[in-house]
Amino acid sequence: MSAKQKKQFGVGLDSRHATIVGYRDAEATEFSVLGHAENKGAGSNSNENAANNLEKTLLRQYFEKITSYMQNADEIHLTGTGTVQEQFIHYLADTPQFKNTVTTESTSSKMSDEKLVEFVSSKFN
Fold first, then answer.
1. Architecture of domain 8-124
2. Where are the alpha helices (DSSP H) in 19-124?
3. Mean pLDDT by 10-residue block, N- to C-terminus, for the chain (125 residues)?
C-alpha cells in the first residue's frame, strides 16, 4: 500500500504573470507546468477611486485564475519578485478552500518554466 501523494504546487509570480507547477495527475512522479495566468493591469483611468477599485478587481481575478489550477492543495510554495506574494498569501488565507493549506515563500528573480519546475521539485523533495 503506497502513501497518499500530497497535492503540492509551486507558483512563480510577479504582478503581471504567474506560472503554476504541480503534478499533472495522481500517478505523476515529477512536477510539470500546469498553466500560466496573466494580469493585464488596469491601464489608465482619470478617476483615482475607480482605478483603485479596478486594480483590486483585476488582482482578485488574477489570483482566482492561479488557484483554479490548484484544487485541494495541501502545500504551496511561492516564489518571485515584488510584494504580490504577500498579497497572494493573504488571499489564500481568506479563501475557505485554502485555509488549511501550508504556504511557504521565497524570493528569486524571474525563472524559465524549466528552472521553475526544478526549483519547486527541490523545495518539496
1. 2-Layer Sandwich (3.30)
2. 48-67, 84-93, 113-124
3. 74 95 90 95 76 90 97 94 91 94 90 94 89
